[in-house]
Design a protein that fits this description.
The protein is of the alpha/beta class. It contains eleven helices and 14 strands. A five-stranded mixed sheet has the order 5-3-6-13-7, sandwiched between helices. A five-stranded mixed sheet has the order 10-9-11-8-12. Strands 1-2 form a two-stranded antiparallel ribbon. The chain starts with a helix and ends with a strand.
């Protein structure tokens, strides 16, 4: 008994016609008839009543049909399982990371995945959050670490890693350092250094200013938190950072939460809902890395919310 014989049997049973069944399985009608005859000889019973223009199942045929379908389904599942293992033996995944962000748990996840599946090639690229999101949507990027102003970009799945308020960071002698509360109106009275457009932190800041019809003077832009902090520490502008980013520079800068910016800046992993077996495995390692940090890696999330 061969799988192709079961396939032809099911096709004839469903089409109730040998000619249509032959067209469905892409062989000649005589070929279908011959294979069905061989199956009937092996089973010792006729499966079809051929006496009328429409082919119908015999009692034996009705008894066999469910088992034939189950056998074909099992064969298909076997092929899929082997295919998934093959995909994990070899393949390629592209991971994106927003410019200016060094998040060690992500590197830990990539290392753990590589150790488990060394045949899968991993590519890592840096870009703006906007372009990374578009890359995930088009399939050019499999998984991306982005800064965002909303939890889940439209059409994608997401895992929020960090959600934090924006702060203004200034050197100790700056007028804002003497205030207990800082608002956007206070902030826009000074030149500002901030992340460039296309980053999650900048999106939150721009949206908050637009909501109050404010036009900040962003005189300096940098993708790296170190550069923003250094420029602010030299008195060139007020740094707009996230809470955790500013905490790394408390020896040089005083941070004040911007009171009237309630929307948090987010750092999130994003991916498409439909993905490959390799991608599913990478997601498992990524979730583990961010919920159970690797003790061998630095706990610092440098530039955490670009």
């Amino acid at each position: 008994m061969e799988l192709r014989q079961l396939e032809y049997f099911v096709a004839v049973a469903e089409e109730r016609n040998f000619t249509r069944a032959a067209e469905r399985v892409h062989i000649s009608q005589s070929g279908v008839s011959a294979q069905i005859r061989r199956l009937e000889q092996e089973l010792g019973a006729e499966l079809f009543d051929r006496s009328a223009r429409t082919v119908t199942l015999t009692v034996a045929g009705r008894a066999a049909l469910g088992h034939a379908r189950a056998a074909l389904a099992a064969a298909g599942a076997l092929g899929q399982a082997v295919g998934e293992v093959t995909d994990l033996i070899r393949g390629r995944l592209t991971v994106g990371m927003v410019i200016g962000c060094t998040l060690t748990p992500l590197f830990g996840a990539l290392a753990a995945f590589h150790q488990a599946h060394p045949g899968v090639e991993i590519s890592l690229l840096e870009d703006s959050s906007d372009r990374l999101v578009e890359g995930v949507r088009t399939g050019a990027v499999d998984l991306a670490l982005i800064g965002a102003a909303t939890a889940t970009p439209d059409g994608l799945d997401a895992l929020t890693i960090i959600s934090e308020r924006l702060v203004a960071a200034v050197p100790a002698g700056h007028p804002l350092a003497k205030q207990r509360r800082v608002t956007l109106h206070d902030l826009v009275a000074h030149p500002i250094v901030c992340m460039p457009p296309g980053t999650g932190l900048r999106t939150v800041f721009d949206q908050a200013c637009a909501a109050q019809n404010l036009r900040p003077s962003i005189t300096l832009q940098a993708s790296a938190a170190d550069a923003i902090a250094d420029l602010a520490a030299r008195g060139l502008a007020v740094a707009v950072l996230s809470d955790s980013m500013a905490a790394h520079y408390r020896d040089r800068l005083t941070a004040r939460t911007i009171d009237d910016v309630d929307t948090p800046a987010l750092l999130a992993l994003v991916w498409k809902s439909t993905h490959s077996p390799g991608m599913r495995e990478l997601l498992v390692h990524s979730r583990q890395a961010f919920t159970e940090p690797d003790p061998t890696t630095s706990p610092r999330t440098h530039g955490a919310l670009p």
